Amino acid sequence: MKRVLIGAARLLVSIAICQLAGAVGLAASRDTERYYAKLEKPSIAPPPAVFGPVWTVLYTMMGTAAFLVWRQKKADGAKALKLFGAQLALNAAWTPVFFGLKKPGLALIVIGALLPAIIATIAAFWVVSIPAALLLVPYLLWVGFASVLNFELWRRN
């Protein structure tokens, strides 16, 4: 029973860290909704109400993936989790750069670094836990889409 409780606590911590990364990014960005509403958007831009639920699900999947690697206690797991931390830091940096600083061009550089960091993390997770790696694929796809959207927002504004 103790082992199950420790596992559950670790899972919750992993998810909470990822959710916190998103919350920190938003907290560092004032006037997000008003700024986004003023931007000229391409037709591929989803309604603003989509972003919160999508990121909540993705951060939960990311935290679950990190937990699966953490619980393996393999030598490769430590390296994989360091890569995960690096990509999570880039993820958290994007929102304040795009919305807080109102610098879509600089945000494009951040997301341009984030994409290969996610790919490297998936590759590192694959060695430790294939299910963990697969849990990051929707995140990679969403960030790929977000990169295109970021580029279009920069280009149009």
What does this protein structure show overall?
The chain is mostly helical. It has seven helices and no strands. The protein has helices at 2-27, 32-38, 48-70, 75-100, 104-128, 130-135, 137-156. Helix 5 runs antiparallel to helix 7. The longest helix has 26 residues, at 2-27. The radius of gyration is 16 Å and the shape is elongated. The model has no long low-confidence stretch (mean pLDDT 95).
The total strand number stands at: 0
This entry's quaternary arrangement is single chain
What is the mean predicted local confidence, pLDDT? 95
- The helix content is over 70%
Rounded to the nearest angstrom, the distance between the terminal CA atoms is: 56 Å
| Backbone structural class | mainly alpha
Radius of gyration: 16 Å
Largest sheet: none
| Helix count from the secondary structure assignment | 7
The backbone outline, from C-alpha atoms, is elongated
- Low-pLDDT segments, ≥5 res: none
Order of helices and strands: HHHHHHH
Strand content: under 5%
Give a short summary of the structure.
Helices cover 85% and strands 0% of the residues. It is mainly alpha-helical and 157 residues long. It starts with a helix and ends with a helix.
For this entry, give a set of tags:
elongated, mainly alpha, 157 residues
Question: How does the SSE layout of this entry go?
Answer:
Blueprint: H1 2-27, H2 32-38, H3 48-70, H4 75-100, H5 104-128, H6 130-135, H7 137-156
